[in-house]
């Protein structure tokens, strides 16, 4: 026993050592469990010695504390369970297990009144059963907030009602506000028949490609003088046209003000609430994304009379790189230490292996991490088990401790299953769910009862006091010390915890921080001692204990007078002497193989009933090494019952890279379900876990291949699922064997630098003979993108599946110093193609230019400024036909000479083999990859030993693979490319005249034409240049382009006439006969007057310059015909509108038709179905009332990915659908317009 009087404690950031250098008293209890002469006790079962250094004199003991004050005896555990109606109903929402029923019987008014719980989850449905009012008729849900921004609607645009009280919504719909709101020939018949068939084909194709992106709704917000009000038009949700109108919608405001919610429609039964921000410029529509959050809230719900929160429940988590680290942990520390909030979270569902607790629940000191417990009542009632277990157990999948830095991981356990309310859109009132996600709110509800009582009796609410009460009154389910890694301190007991709190109300609110480090080192700082395989010698540790007060604690009244006398105890032998710090030595050399758990804890000398004030967890894993060649471990006839877990800790041999395991199950009558897990822990890395869930329907053998890392202890866990075989009285007998293999490689990551040189690889086998069959394939392309204000631009030359990667931020949520990170990928039309967070995913996007916008939060602006230059990689999946298989050679020049191809070999133990992997040839590189891009893939070396030899020869299976990459080098530049050698034959005067002419044309193209004065000056220059260079086609083409790109003014008819005149000038300037001879012009098959001589090929060989000139002239001529046709159609439409006709009608066949004549001329020169000219074909088909064919050509144009989507094409598609009479498709396309062409950027 050590009496430790504490002196002058300070606030969190200024805490000294706990142990006073002069007031340390060392004592030894009479049981002689403590030795202080440095001599070890013999015996393998109790071979652990924990001793302090240096030794110190011993004093008479004062036995004032017994283990019974910490753990409950077996006699206090639940008795056998009998199923009846009352116990069945009670099992659906477990309360008896944690003593909540006993607590409420003693304190019926302490039912959660006065307690506010925050549910951090997937959303809560305000319409769910049991979440409307409390037992005294007050509202349960105080507020509902969306922290993701997914429901944010930009409502900054201001509109006014018309004289009839209508407004135009963002969707284009006319919305009525409520009064209470503020204010032929045969050939033609053939074409008609073809057009009808095209329409039918279109409808069939539309049915096959139908993609419902959800309804489009209009949101209106206004201020009624008191609050911001929101109305939502839900007509698109309802079947009837009279349903869901804006005028019938009851306006909402921020949920916390009136606690009203809406339902989108009776069809979906999905409820929502609204919140208005930024003076009405932003509306947040909040709804749940899964039943998870509502189910959790239904378990933990309590009365909410005020805005301040008392408890936070978070039923989410994941593995972490560093425990108790990151911005999220910093914020939780703040709400706990400063604001006295109690943060409760799930420990995780990754069990049954050890060290599987997730962040933040199982890895953060400030969070109460909760494991999942199932009682006999729950098994029989909620789970409908045929025969419940005799005693309660932890669910098989519940995560276990310790953390990587030695902390216990699980604080307490609570019932991990319940039948709880779920959202109305699930079309059921309640649902059974199980997981630590359910255990956490169960504990949260129990804590709410404690806080309700504390507030009623005036006891200060402190998370330190509540946590200590939960831990020191929990009911232990097992007498085995190592079971604490599974259940924490045990099953929480509300009634006992409240009694503890009542007895502690006059004691200071304080917790103790345990800081552990290897002796002689200041880092790393640990929270426990975790020896995982390092058991060959004794190790010395420095332990510092620091008291922690809440931040607002008074220096004068609380910190200065604080003093406590603490006894140190251990569950095993202890010698302790600390002049300033506590030094202990862990000697595990005499321990047996397997898992050992012990604790050093401190007891208040004056109040031993308080139990441990702090604990130092000590977890020791002593592995067993496999033997043989290859190394092998086997276990036979291991008996399993429901919930039984077998752990084997194996010292993985150095040089092992994979293991092959077999599991044989026998001796059972019904199907058996098993969890098979392996875990290896590495420094500064997430635990590497392999898992498999297998079901044996009959006695059989199953095989597995497990990647491993040599030299690192591995836990192999086999567990029979807790409910598997629960109705059978037969045990399952399991034989399992694991064999280790390995091929050691000279470098795990192979980088080909882009040169022609091969990369040398050396491999060896240290364990046994292995078949060496190298294989490497490049399957992805990765390009670099630079940022500006966290905006990244990237371009895809063809559609592909891409994934953004930011190495600094990806794959870390809780173990990062940044609060959040979110990105969106949008195109030039602001359409969102993808959004994501720290775990980016592949998304398929078409060809085009894209913008990735990244959002990062941090309280320090200077750090955010540094993030502006973050590197972003765009990873692109290559099509299977683009995959590149690399070749291996035994010679460095083998890929040039073609000699020395390396296929396979046999590695003997200790022997080495070297070979070369060669880079891909330039011809195989994907077209989409530019210089500097990186091709990624995998390389493997070995093959599995299991399986038939024939299968291995035909399809060799690689047990483990590594990364290989190839940097694409720059292409060789052709220095002569682009040079015009004919210019050297011209005299200086000719060259000067050409340069002057081209300069004038460039000047003409660059002049502004925005105002009337600028347009007039431009036209004057055009006339001057036409007079100076008459019939010069490039000049006339530039003038036509200028008219097309100009504003045109208000007189559109004059502008179209000018375009026709300019197009005719271009057409007249071209020698069409000469051009036709050059391109072997083909006539229009519909024009019988075209002479056959145009089909004759004029020439096959021409000079390159002449060819380019002719191609340019042809393109200018075709563009003139094309633009002239569009202008003629527009003029015809203007005339029809002025005449009052509904549709522009073509001229009668007896009259000349300029449009048709122009169209036939265009067809002579180009393919009018091409994407560049097909718009004129669409106009022609629409003009001739062949709407189906026009729609088909337009859809082909839209699907062409050569250019980004254009709004005018989709508008034209809607017009054509309306003219055909397909109103349902018009509505469908109008809804999609808001997805393809958002009116404003995505709101965050």
Automatic annotation (TrEMBL):
<dbReference type="InterPro" id="IPR036852">
    <property type="entry name" value="Peptidase_S8/S53_dom_sf"/>
</dbReference>
<feature type="domain" description="Peptidase S8/S53">
    <location>
        <begin position="306"/>
        <end position="500"/>
    </location>
</feature>
<feature type="domain" description="Tripeptidyl-peptidase II first Ig-like">
    <location>
        <begin position="526"/>
        <end position="621"/>
    </location>
</feature>
<protein>
    <recommendedName>
        <fullName>tripeptidyl-peptidase II</fullName>
        <ecNumber>3.4.14.10</ecNumber>
    </recommendedName>
</protein>
<dbReference type="InterPro" id="IPR046940">
    <property type="entry name" value="TPPII_Ig-like_sf"/>
</dbReference>
<dbReference type="Pfam" id="PF00082">
    <property type="entry name" value="Peptidase_S8"/>
</dbReference>
<dbReference type="InterPro" id="IPR022398">
    <property type="entry name" value="Peptidase_S8_His-AS"/>
</dbReference>
<dbReference type="Pfam" id="PF21316">
    <property type="entry name" value="TPPII_GBD"/>
</dbReference>
<feature type="domain" description="Tripeptidyl peptidase II second Ig-like">
    <location>
        <begin position="788"/>
        <end position="927"/>
    </location>
</feature>
<dbReference type="InterPro" id="IPR015500">
    <property type="entry name" value="Peptidase_S8_subtilisin-rel"/>
</dbReference>
<dbReference type="InterPro" id="IPR000209">
    <property type="entry name" value="Peptidase_S8/S53_dom"/>
</dbReference>
<dbReference type="InterPro" id="IPR046939">
    <property type="entry name" value="TPPII_C_sf"/>
</dbReference>
<dbReference type="GO" id="GO:0006508">
    <property type="term" value="P:proteolysis"/>
</dbReference>
<keyword id="KW-0378">Hydrolase</keyword>
<dbReference type="GO" id="GO:0005829">
    <property type="term" value="C:cytosol"/>
</dbReference>
<dbReference type="InterPro" id="IPR048383">
    <property type="entry name" value="TPPII_Ig-like-1"/>
</dbReference>
<dbReference type="InterPro" id="IPR050131">
    <property type="entry name" value="Peptidase_S8_subtilisin-like"/>
</dbReference>
<comment type="similarity">
    <text>Belongs to the peptidase S8 family.</text>
</comment>
<dbReference type="GO" id="GO:0004252">
    <property type="term" value="F:serine-type endopeptidase activity"/>
</dbReference>
<dbReference type="GO" id="GO:0008240">
    <property type="term" value="F:tripeptidyl-peptidase activity"/>
</dbReference>
<dbReference type="InterPro" id="IPR023828">
    <property type="entry name" value="Peptidase_S8_Ser-AS"/>
</dbReference>
<dbReference type="InterPro" id="IPR048384">
    <property type="entry name" value="TPPII_GBD"/>
</dbReference>
<dbReference type="InterPro" id="IPR022229">
    <property type="entry name" value="TPPII_Ig-like-2"/>
</dbReference>
<dbReference type="GO" id="GO:0004177">
    <property type="term" value="F:aminopeptidase activity"/>
</dbReference>
<dbReference type="Pfam" id="PF12580">
    <property type="entry name" value="TPPII"/>
</dbReference>
<keyword id="KW-0031">Aminopeptidase</keyword>
<dbReference type="Pfam" id="PF21223">
    <property type="entry name" value="TPPII_Ig-like-1"/>
</dbReference>
<keyword id="KW-0645">Protease</keyword>
<keyword id="KW-0720">Serine protease</keyword>
<feature type="domain" description="Tripeptidyl-peptidase II galactose-binding">
    <location>
        <begin position="640"/>
        <end position="724"/>
    </location>
</feature>
């Amino acid at each position: 026993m050590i009496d430790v009087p504490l002196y002058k404690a300070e606030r969190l950031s200024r805490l000294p050592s706990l142990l006073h250098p002069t007031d340390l008293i060392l004592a030894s209890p009479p049981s002689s469990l403590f030795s202080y002469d440095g001599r070890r006790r013999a015996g393998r079962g109790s071979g652990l010695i924990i001793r302090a250094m240096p030794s110190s004199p011993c004093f008479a003991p004062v036995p004032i504390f017994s283990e019974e004050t910490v753990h409950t005896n077996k006699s206090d555990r639940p008795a056998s369970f009998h199923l009846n109606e009352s116990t069945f109903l009670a099992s659906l929402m477990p309360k008896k297990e944690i003593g909540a029923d006993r607590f409420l019987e003693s304190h019926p008014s302490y039912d959660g009144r006065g307690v506010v719980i925050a549910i951090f989850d997937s959303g809560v449905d305000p319409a769910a059963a049991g979440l409307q009012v409390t037992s005294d008729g007050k509202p349960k849900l105080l507020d509902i907030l969306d922290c993701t921004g997914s429901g944010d609607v930009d409502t900054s645009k201001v509109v006014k009602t018309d004289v009839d009280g209508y407004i135009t919504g963002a969707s284009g719909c006319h919305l009525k506000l409520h009064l209470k709101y503020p204010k032929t020939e045969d050939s033609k018949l053939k074409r008609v028949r073809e057009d009808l068939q095209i329409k039918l084909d279109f409808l069939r194709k539309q049915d096959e490609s139908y993609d419902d992106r959800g309804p489009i709704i209009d949101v209106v917000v206004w201020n009624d003088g008191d609050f911001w009000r929101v109305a939502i038009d839900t007509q698109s949700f309802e079947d009837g046209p009279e349903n869901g109108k804006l005028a019938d919608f009851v306006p909402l405001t921020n949920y916390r003000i009136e606690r009203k919610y809406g339902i989108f429609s009776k069809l979906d039964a999905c409820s929502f609430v609204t919140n208005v921000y930024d003076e009405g410029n932003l509306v947040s529509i909040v709804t749940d994304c899964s039943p998870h959050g509502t189910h959790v809230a239904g378990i933990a719900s309590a009365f909410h009379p005020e805005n301040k929160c008392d408890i936070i429940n978070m039923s989410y988590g994941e593995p972490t790189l560093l425990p108790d680290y990151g911005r999220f942990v910093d914020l939780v520390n703040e709400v706990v230490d400063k604001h006295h909030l109690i943060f409760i979270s799930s420990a995780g569902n990754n069990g049954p292996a050890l060290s599987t607790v997730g962040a933040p629940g199982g890895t953060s000191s400030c969070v109460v991490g909760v494991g999942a417990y199932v009682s006999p009542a729950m098994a029989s009632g909620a789970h409908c088990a045929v025969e419940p277990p005799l005693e309660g157990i932890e669910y098989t999948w519940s995560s276990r401790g310790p953390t990587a830095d030695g902390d216990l991981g699980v604080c307490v356990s609570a019932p991990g299953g319940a039948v709880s309310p779920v959202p109305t859109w699930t079309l059921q009132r309640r649902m059974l769910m199980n997981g630590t996600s359910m255990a956490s709110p169960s504990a949260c509800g129990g804590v709410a009862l404690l806080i309700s009582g504390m507030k009623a009796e005036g006891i200060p609410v402190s998370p330190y006091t509540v946590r200590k009460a939960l831990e020191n009154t929990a009911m232990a389910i097992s007498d085995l010390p190592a079971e604490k890694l599974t259940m924490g301190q045990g099953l929480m007991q509300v009634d006992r915890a409240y009694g503890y709190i009542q007895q502690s109300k006059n004691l200071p609110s304080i917790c103790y921080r345990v800081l552990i480090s290897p002796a002689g080192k200041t880092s790393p700082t640990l929270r426990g001692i975790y020896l995982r395989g390092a058991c060959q010698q004794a190790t010395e540790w420095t332990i510092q204990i620091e008291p922690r007060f809440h931040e607002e604690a008074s220096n004068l009244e609380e910190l200065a007078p604080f003093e406590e006398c603490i006894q140190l105890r251990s569950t095993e032998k202890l010698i302790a002497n600390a002049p300033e710090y506590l030094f202990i030595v862990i000697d595990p050399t005499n321990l047996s193989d397997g898992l050992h758990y012990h604790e050093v804890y401190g007891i208040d000398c004056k109040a031993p009933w308080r139990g441990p004030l702090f604990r130092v967890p000590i977890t020791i894993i002593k592995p067993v090494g496999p033997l043989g060649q290859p190394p092998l471990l086997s276990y036979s006839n291991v008996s399993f019952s429901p919930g039984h877990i077998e752990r084997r800790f194996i010292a993985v041999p150095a040089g092992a890279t994979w293991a092959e395991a077999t599991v044989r199950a026998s001796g059972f009558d019904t199907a058996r379900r098993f969890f098979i897990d392996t875990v290896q822990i590495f420094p500064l890395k997430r635990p590497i876990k392999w898992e498999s869930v297998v079901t044996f329907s009959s006695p059989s053998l199953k095989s597995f291949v497990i990647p491993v890392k040599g030299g690192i202890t591995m836990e192999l866990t086999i567990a029979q699922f807790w409910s598997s075989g629960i109705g059978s009285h037969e045990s399952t007998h399991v034989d399992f064997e694991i064999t280790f293999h390995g091929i050691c490689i000279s470098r795990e990551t192979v980088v080909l630098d882009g040169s022609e040189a091969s990369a040398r690889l050396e491999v060896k086998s240290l364990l046994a003979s292995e078949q060496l069959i190298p294989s490497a394939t490049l399957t992805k392309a990765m390009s670099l993108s630079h940022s500006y204000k966290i905006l990244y631009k990237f371009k895809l030359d063809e559609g592909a599946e891409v994934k953004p990667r930011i190495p600094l931020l990806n794959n870390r949520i809780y173990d990062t110093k940044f609060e959040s990170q979110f990105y969106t990928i949008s195109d030039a039309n602001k359409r969102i193609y993808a959004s994501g967070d720290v775990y980016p995913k592949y998304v398929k996007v078409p060809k085009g230019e894209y913008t990735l916008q990244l959002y990062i939060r941090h309280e320090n602006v200077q750090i955010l400024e540094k993030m502006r230059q973050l590197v972003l990689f765009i990873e692109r999946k290559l099509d299977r036909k683009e995959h590149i298989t690399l070749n291996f050679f035994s010679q460095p020049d083998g890929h040039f000479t073609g000699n020395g191809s390396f296929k396979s070999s046999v590695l003997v133990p200790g022997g080495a083999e070297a070979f070369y992997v060669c880079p891909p040839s330039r011809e195989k590189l994907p077209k989409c990859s530019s210089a500097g891009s990186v091709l990624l893939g995998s390389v493997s070396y070995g093959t599995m030993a299991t399986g038939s030899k024939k299968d291995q020869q035909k399809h060799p299976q690689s047990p483990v693979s590594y990364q290989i990459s190839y940097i694409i080098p720059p292409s060789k530049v052709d220095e002569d490319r682009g040079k015009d050698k004919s210019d050297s034959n011209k005299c200086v005067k000719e060259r000067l005249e050409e340069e002057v002419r081209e300069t004038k044309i460039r000047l003409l193209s660059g002049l502004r034409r925005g105002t009337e004065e600028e347009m007039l000056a431009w036209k004057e220059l055009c006339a001057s240049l036409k007079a100076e260079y008459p019939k010069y086609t490039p000049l006339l083409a530039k003038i036509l382009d200028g008219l097309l790109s100009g504003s045109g003014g208000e007189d559109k008819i004059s502008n179209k006439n000018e375009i026709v005149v300019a197009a005719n000038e271009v057409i007249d300037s071209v020698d069409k006969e000469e051009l036709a001879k050059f391109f072997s012009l083909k006539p229009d098959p519909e024009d019988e007057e075209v002479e056959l001589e145009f089909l004759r090929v004029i020439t096959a060989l021409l000079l390159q310059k002449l060819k380019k000139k002719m191609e340019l002239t042809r393109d200018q001529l075709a563009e003139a015909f094309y633009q002239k046709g569009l202008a003629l159609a527009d003029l015809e439409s203007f005339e029809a509108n002025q005449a009052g006709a509904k549709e522009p009608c073509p001229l009668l066949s007896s009259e000349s038709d300029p449009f048709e004549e122009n169209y036939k001329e265009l067809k002579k020169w180009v393919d009018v179905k091409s994407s560049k000219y097909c718009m004129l074909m669409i106009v022609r088909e629409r003009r001739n009332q062949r709407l189906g064919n026009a729609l088909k050509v337009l859809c082909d144009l839209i699907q062409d990915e050569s250019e980004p989507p254009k709004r005018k094409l989709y508008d034209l598609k809607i017009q054509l659908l309306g003219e055909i009479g397909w109103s349902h498709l018009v509505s469908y396309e109008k809804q999609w317009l808001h997805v393809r062409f958002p009116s404003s950027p995505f709101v965050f």
